UniProtKB/TrEMBL annotation:
<protein>
    <submittedName>
        <fullName>Diguanylate cyclase</fullName>
        <ecNumber>2.7.7.65</ecNumber>
    </submittedName>
</protein>
<keyword id="KW-0808">Transferase</keyword>
<keyword id="KW-0548">Nucleotidyltransferase</keyword>
Length: 360
């Protein structure tokens, strides 16, 4: 096969890789769990490598030349170690299944490139949105190092193949990683920015807790389950006692620190199925699905005691907590919040640093 034919095959590979790369954003959109994204991205990059092997140029019986390593190299910075291992495993198994004189050297090429991709992603800091053309160009050139495994073949086979195809493969790998890497990098930066905007919209910047808007979203299915007869829903309204005095005496910076500490204590001491949010000012809300009033009151009192012990050492900070629980068709978040807020007012009026359970 001529050098021109090899070049045509390599260019076709890069075109197919571009189509596969278009699915990168869709993976992040449809798979929220990190492990699921890693698996799907590994399959995606692996399928790109498989396509390259299917479309490869057979330069000697059983010896194939293609741009598979572009996909394997990019799996490291844009998919992570799990994706790289999965993509390399898919490509290696297929190459071994094809067999031929170059089966083992071709598989070694894939493995070497996978290691280069993982190491480069870590060493050069090109993971996520820390990208540069220089880094990608370096990775593209480095990904061709695996081609040297061809010298495991007898020299009378390896040398002619190397001299005829190494430069085209080097160019294809360098350009492929550079161009596709820039595209994937833009997609990743866009995704990261979108995530930042979502965080800004739904997370309180001071306490890092969800805000009121996010809490209402999270509580909606809890309310639905409660209305469907799956136990009671309890709500805690937590308010820092004499918070204005803390700000006046020690300054707003100290007040911010106290609010952050209280928020983290509450977060640490609720269950994984519970939801906590900053509702405004120094007020925090906890929603506890499938929880009766007695259990919610016990949890509230435990939180109150921990805050008084851990935060009150230096500033004497305490909290008051209102508790309300409801079940059945009449349960709504508005109704629960109003009842818990009224119970909180009762706790404040009767000395603070205590919990109060809403009537009924």
């Amino acid at each position: 096969m001529s050098v021109e034919e090899v070049l045509v095959r390599l260019v076709n590979d890069l075109g197919a890789f571009a189509l596969i790369a278009l699915g990168y954003r869709a993976v992040f959109k449809h798979f929220a769990a990190a492990w699921a994204r890693s698996v799907v991205l590994g399959i995606m990059f692996g399928m790109g490598a498989l396509w390259a092997i299917l479309n490869s140029a057979e330069v000697r019986p059983g010896v194939f030349v293609d741009a598979r390593c572009v996909m394997i190299a990019l799996a490291g910075p844009f998919g992570g170690p799990v994706s790289t291992v999965l993509a390399a495993a898919l490509a290696s198994l297929y190459r071994l299944w094809l067999g031929g004189a170059g089966a083992y050297t071709g598989t070694a090429n894939i493995i070497v490139t996978a290691i280069i991709g993982i190491v480069s992603a870590h060493a050069l800091g090109i993971e996520r949105n820390v990208l540069s053309r220089r880094h990608l160009a370096w990775l593209g050139l480095a990904s061709s190092a695996g081609f040297l495994t061809i010298f495991a073949l007898p020299s009378e086979i390896a040398w002619p193949i190397f001299k005829a195809t190494f430069i085209p493969v080097l160019i294809a790998n360098a350009l492929g990683v550079l161009l596709l890497g820039q595209f994937l990098g833009r997609e990743r930066r866009s995704l990261d920015r979108q995530h930042e905007l979502e965080v800004e919209a739904f997370v309180d910047p001071l306490t890092k807790l969800p805000n009121r808007r996010m809490l209402e979203r999270v509580v909606a299915p809890m309310i639905q389950r409660t209305q469907d007869g799956h136990g009671a829903l309890s709500v805690l309204v937590i308010d820092i006692d004499h918070f204005k005095q803390v700000n006046d005496r020690y300054g707003h910076d100290a007040g911010d620190v106290v609010l952050q500490q209280v928020a983290q204590i509450v977060r640490r001491n609720i269950r994984s199925q519970d939801a906590v949010a900053r509702f405004g000012g120094e007020e925090l809300i906890v929603a506890m699905p499938s929880t009766e009033a007695a259990a919610a009151s016990a949890m509230a009192d435990r939180i109150r005691e921990i805050i008084a012990r851990e935060t009150g050492r230096n500033l004497g900070v305490t909290v008051s907590i209102g508790v309300a629980a409801d079940r059945g068709k009449q349960a709504t978040f508005k109704r629960l919040f109003k009842a818990a807020d009224e119970a909180l007012y009762f706790a404040k009026q009767n000395g603070r640093n205590q919990i109060a359970l809403a009537a009924g």
